[in-house]
Design a protein that fits this description.
The protein is α+β, with helices and mostly antiparallel strands. The protein contains seven helices and 55 strands. Strands 35, 36, 37, 38 and 39 form a five-stranded antiparallel β-sheet that branches. Strands 1, 2, 3 and 4 form a four-stranded antiparallel β-sheet that branches. Strands 5-6-7-8 form a four-stranded antiparallel β-sheet. It starts with a strand and ends with a strand.
Length: 765
């Protein structure tokens, strides 16, 4: 007789809840006198008995074939899996969570014994309890009455046993294989509108075979699905470490098998496998010098080989959350591997037209040193309030200021502050176009607002945007079509003609996450935080050239005349990051040179380009740093160690110096040829919470405008102060026109305009 019994130990425990005055101690589940559970704390005893009663009732009346009852011990989450086979029930006990552990595998018990054992346990609890008015006891009593009203129904179902073989790849250097049996229930109901985490249905057993080269290792009965989950997680981490050139060392035990992975910085992978015993691991075997790609491909093949028969023979797996996550991980790893091994790099063999077009464009203009020894004075013109102002959607168009709030887009006369027009808008971001404002909504609508009236002149429907700001560029150059190029959805770059409103072309990217766009003449250079740097033809959207690297291109690129500079990295934290600076020919895609940056330091923003150097800003916990490389061959020229300025800073290249504006009130002018500080100013540090949101310096008519507590105006060459805009606002954003008139915008929605007064000049005798 296969007996099922629940024993309650009524000894006092420290974790006892006060409401259980009579039920003291813990609960154990026994099959044929063998304890098959961990000792269950009394806090969970009553709910377990209740859930076990209803689960057994479902099995008894053929409502379900499988049921899972979850419970807790003092530390971990556990589950009791019940599966009906003929008139018996198979009892499985396992620890749930990310790293499951099976302690009892399909212990067989008679169905009527299951009902009898649960009923006896419930009656024992209720007989000892004097006050049955507590909600849990009333719930338990209802479960007892329901269990008394039914009988174990004899089964007439025919259970089909399917033998599944996951074969090894005969021509692969690494392969995993297994075979197991599945019980198929054709009439098992499937809940189409409910997804549940059902690990119990995936705990089938079978032998596991590993073949690497000519060596084969066979393991006894294990849980193939748990092995596949573990291999999949390891493969993801191995591939990420291999891409970044990092070392990786990890060991994990799953289903009585030790799996050890070791990857060196040279990309050499070793795999250790072994069986477990109570005294430790024995019979381990290490396979050295395995190809990372072969290991990942073998893991994917083994995982797919498991998924296909499970979905084919068990319809309920389509609504199993555990299976869904597993399949998504398989697809994600497959995409990542395909991107890593893809050999689709392309060079442009006909760069003449692109080079000639860029040569016809004017070179970088020099700043106008028109201020000499003069001074600037500013007069307040007007103040206004724009509720919910979007700092990224405030623009100057000649004699008017256009600002977007939370509900309205408004145009304001720059001199008088008079509102010229305002129109209602929905949530989105604004882009300044030559003849108006373009609003991009998260739903995918693109509205063109006329600059004169604010009315919508065109509407274009694109794919919805899933969070984040769109990337793009405005093309308004003679000889090129007038285009607004934006990121669409997750993986597309789309060009819209802002005159006709038609979509001219749409380019599909690889994985496409954080998309960044930079125009270089007739080319559009696109990065999407993957291993690809792509140059598209602005007019057609066709790929002109493509570069691949093991590291990801995560930073904006810099284009200057006949050079293109980009930084690739592993995207890791500052303490472990690895990055490289690349110099490319922008017209062919050929690599000119590559320079490795210091490990543990992360770059910031796009590289700065001068006539002789390329300068990279560095982020470190100590603060901001700079390193300069020769533009022609990449050799290091000078370096400023991190810490000379705060990390939260903004910089601008002006003639022969780099102007840096810092959050702590410090302003610097660096000579970019030598890295020496030419001038330095320190103002009173803004109070906490009053630091400007945007510290970017603005250069107008030879004067440099620096947002601090007030807007400080200096001459770039020597740092001499030319004036100060004293506003009662935090200059979270400043806009300056060519006449040095200033608009100050605070994030609270307050806007103030100032006009530059008569210029004062010092006359020396």
């Amino acid at each position: 007789m296969r007996a099922f019994q629940i024993v309650i130990d009524r000894r006092s425990t420290h974790s006892a809840s006060r409401m259980f005055s009579n039920l003291r101690g813990v609960l154990d589940v026994l099959v044929d006198g063998t304890n098959v559970t961990a000792r269950i704390g009394q806090d969970h005893a009553i709910p377990l008995l209740r859930d076990l009663a209803y689960a057994a009732a479902d099995l008894a009346i053929h409502r379900h074939t499988r049921a899972t009852v979850r419970f807790y011990d003092q530390r971990d989450a556990w589950a009791l899996g019940l599966e009906r086979v003929d008139n018996d029930v198979l009892v499985t006990v396992f620890q749930a969570g990310e790293h499951p552990h099976v302690v009892v595998q399909e212990r067989r018990v008679l169905g009527i014994s299951l009902l009898r054992g649960i009923m006896n346990a419930i009656e024992s609890v209720l007989d000892q309890e004097k006050d049955k008015t507590e909600p849990l006891f009333r719930d338990l009593d209802a479960a007892r009455r329901f269990l008394e009203s039914l009988r174990w129904q004899t089964s007439s179902r025919s259970i089909e046993i399917v033998d599944v073989v996951v074969e090894a790849q005969s021509d692969a250097a690494v392969s995993f294989s297994t075979e197991f049996s599945l019980r198929v229930y054709d009439d098992e109901p499937v809940l189409d509108n409910v997804e549940r985490n059902e690990l119990h249905s995936l705990l089938f057993t079978g032998p596991f075979h590993v073949r690497i080269g000519d060596v084969r290792r066979d393991f006894g009965n294990v849980h193939p699905f748990l092995i596949a989950e573990c291999l999949l997680r390891e493969a993801v981490m191995v591939l990420q470490a291999w891409e970044s050139g990092s070392a990786f060392n990890h060991r994990r035990q799953v289903s009585d098998i030790l799996i050890g992975i070791r990857l060196t910085t040279q990309g050499i992978l070793s795999l250790t496998l072994g069986g477990a015993s109570s005294a430790g691991f024995h019979g381990t075997l290490t396979f050295p010098s395995i190809s990372v790609v072969s290991f990942v491909e073998a893991t994917l093949a083994f995982s797919r080989g498991l998924v296909r028969p499970l979905l084919r023979h068990d319809r309920s797996q389509r609504s199993n959350l555990r299976m869904r996550v597993f399949r998504e991980d398989v697809r994600s790893l497959s995409t990542a591997l395909r991107e890593v091994v893809r050999q689709d790099a392309k060079l442009n063999r006909s760069p003449e037209s692109y080079r000639a077009f860029a040569a016809s464009v004017a070179t970088r203009p020099a700043s106008n040193h028109s201020w000499g020894h003069g001074r600037l004075r500013f007069h307040a013109n007007w103040q206004a309030a724009v509720p919910g102002v979007d700092l990224q959607s405030v623009f100057l168009f000649g004699d008017r200021l256009v600002a977007a709030g939370s509900r309205e887009l408004a145009s304001i006369d720059k001199q008088s502050g008079r509102i010229l027009w305002r129109v209602p808008i929905e949530r989105g971001v604004s882009v300044a176009a030559p003849h108006g404002i373009v609003r991009l909504s998260p739903r995918g609508f693109m509205h063109f607002h006329d600059l004169t009236t604010g009315e919508i002149s065109m509407v274009v429907r694109l794919a919805a945007r899933n969070g984040g700001l769109p990337a793009g560029a405005i093309v308004n150059v003679p000889g090129l079509p007038r285009l607004l190029i934006v990121s669409e959805g997750e993986k597309h770059i789309t060009a819209v003609d802002y005159v006709s409103g038609e979509v001219r072309w749409r380019h599909t990217l690889g994985r496409g996450r954080s998309i960044k766009v930079r125009r270089a003449g007739k080319l559009l250079v696109v990065t999407s935080s993957d291993q690809t740097l792509t140059a598209l033809d602005v007019s057609t959207g066709e790929t002109v050239w493509r570069v691949r690297d093991k590291l990801r291109f995560t930073r904006p690129v810099s284009y200057d005349r006949n050079d293109l500079f980009a930084v690739s990295g592993d995207g890791a934290l500052v303490q472990s990051g690895i990055e490289k600076l690349h110099a490319f020919d922008p017209w062919t895609g050929e690599t000119k040179w590559i320079q490795c940056l210091d490990a543990g330091i992360r770059s910031m923003g796009a590289p700065l380009t001068t006539d002789e150097l390329v300068v990279v800003a560095l982020h470190h916990r100590r603060g901001l740093g700079l390193c300069a490389f020769d533009r022609n061959d990449g050799e290091p020229r000078w370096r400023l160690e991190p810490g000379f300025a705060p990390t939260i800073s903004a910089w601008l290249l002006v003639d022969d110096l780099i102007a840096i504006n810092c959050e702590n009130g410090m302003m610097l002018g660096l000579d970019w040829r030598t890295g020496t500080i030419r001038w330095r100013h320190t103002t009173e540090s803004p109070p906490d919470g009053d630091a400007p949101r945007n510290l970017d310096p603005v250069l107008r008519s030879g004067a440099l405008f620096l947002p601090q507590r007030n807007v400080i105006v200096v001459r770039p060459t020597d740092g001499e102060r030319l004036g100060e805009v004293e506003a009662d606002l935090v200059p979270d954003l400043i806009r300056v026109d060519d006449a040095c008139n200033v608009v100050v915008v605070e994030e609270s929605g307050h806007v103030a305009a100032f006009s530059a007064g008569a210029r004062l000049t010092l006359i020396k005798n």
